[in-house]
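Hi there. Long-time user, first ticket. I'm pasting a complex I've been working with (about 678 residues overall). I'd like to know whether the download I got is complete or cut off, because the file seemed smaller than I expected. Thanks.
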Amino acid sequence: MTQVGVNGYGTIGKRVADAVAAQPDMDLVGVAKTRPNFEAETAARKGYPLYAAVPERVDRFAEAGLDLAGEVEDLVAAADVIVDCTPSGIGAENAALYDDHDTPAIFQGGEDADVADVSFNARANFDDAVGADSARVVSCNTTGLSRILAPLDETYGVEKARVTLVRRGGDPGQTGRGPIDDILPDPVTIPSHHGPDVNTIFPDLDIDTLGMKVPATLMHTHSVNVTLESDADAADVRDRFADETRLFQIPAGADIDGAGKLKEFAHDAGRPRGDLWENCIWAESITVEGRDLYLFQAIHQESDVVPENVDAVRALRGDADAAESMATTEDAMGVGIDY
Amino acid sequence: MTQVGVNGYGTIGKRVADAVAAQPDMDLVGVAKTRPNFEAETAARKGYPLYAAVPERVDRFAEAGLDLAGEVEDLVAAADVIVDCTPSGIGAENAALYDDHDTPAIFQGGEDADVADVSFNARANFDDAVGADSARVVSCNTTGLSRILAPLDETYGVEKARVTLVRRGGDPGQTGRGPIDDILPDPVTIPSHHGPDVNTIFPDLDIDTLGMKVPATLMHTHSVNVTLESDADAADVRDRFADETRLFQIPAGADIDGAGKLKEFAHDAGRPRGDLWENCIWAESITVEGRDLYLFQAIHQESDVVPENVDAVRALRGDADAAESMATTEDAMGVGIDY
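Hi, the file is complete. Here it is re-exported in full:
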């Protein structure tokens, strides 16, 4: 059993902790948290050992009536692999701590690519991380793009990808973020960081990305164009995607017109937190004009990277190959939608 | 002086009426309105003769204290050219009335292309409408695309255009429309109607368009990709666009990051209703990768077609060539932003 610690217990960390706890070959050593807020309270109720991320704040947990198992350094020492789920930029600051303890570490996509030995997407480049000391799970949007580009590149070859990402302004809990009633080019310069980030997974792929930010919180939505190297038709592409567990094709007639209905569907299905770990691709939108493939996909920014983090643990440990790890992860979490 | 009647005095009609009244070679005969609402009240205050669009409702104008110059048929009979600014679908119903009076008619882009002899964009195909009996001014989005495609096609040749249109959910006054907090593929099938609509102006142009709808009201925003037939660089394209009065390049450093600031700029500049008749292109976004040009542009759905309607009047009458008409229109209205 691999002993896994989770440093940071916010939007991603709490989901990774639950996913790790569900795996048959992993134990959750504990989770580190900066503040004794409602998330720390929930971790305690779940029985997850709680560690103080900031030693100076140990007293605040006691004041909140929360028992601590120790400080973050104890968690790092006890873990075979640490998953860093701290906010962007903090992971890089933590890297020295993991190094000091020779604890293999997994970082999130908000860090620069050079924080880790390798950038990681389970479907696209699992083997690159096998035996590495550290891996960076690419961001939710880059994960969503990598999952469709891998099978397309293998089956048809990709001449060029052009993607417009319409990004949610903030997560549902980020009440202070905007925009309100506006559509902002973000960034106004081209490309956005997503294209270069995809190149950390597919170094030779020709991709240009444009980002905009809008007043929505539930999911990102991508307008995707991929110029294929060989002929395809839409039915072919749908069949090819049907083999991929982490791609959910929303059927025509499901009356799912946006992220609101997708989340309602996930809640009705009993998904924890209403999470959608899969790319949600509108099947009707899959269109081929000449060699140009188009589609719309919605990406749940809070959860699509969670199975990738679990797979990254096994890759760093060399415990399984990509297919075995992905199947184990999916089985334990319940990833995959059979509509 | 060309006698111009405006049938329909809502979002577009009231702007067209003001623009016609400002022209040195046109008289506004009057405007037809279905209901005596706040817009009819404003028309009366401006001294525009008011006609009842629905004969059965004549009494309601009297009850509201508004004098009528007649019914819509009188307006059509008195006009040399009628500009139909009624809601989508109503224009087609009105076509027979204009025919009966042999009054040349201009329709809006919400009508099907076959409502008129020709679809019209002043910059791209003014001459096609000269001497025609009717013209259809294409929609705000198609107008915005035509204005950039015309100079690009002339200068570099267009191999293929791929455009994602992030559409405002409704105008500011359309309080009952959504979405709230969502991003909807709209339509979910590809292409959206915009690509085929651009082909009514550029029949041979290869263009695919994708539409999404978001919770914003102020302007549409386009993510544009045009694969050019010949080499270009971004500075070239900026120089080329600088020659086009109806293209406003938002300078880097202007601190205009979205539609909210654009509208504030327009209001500060004293523009009537805060209108932005020009495509608003972020200069920083103009990027060329190989032969792929990218840019972001915001399109003010309430006003960008207004100068086009004025030019369409002159085209139907054969009163001026494209350059003369556009210059006269722009001079009378104050179109063009010198930043």
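A couple of notes from our side: Chain B touches chain A through 43 residues (CB under 8 Å). The radius of gyration of chain B is 20 Å.
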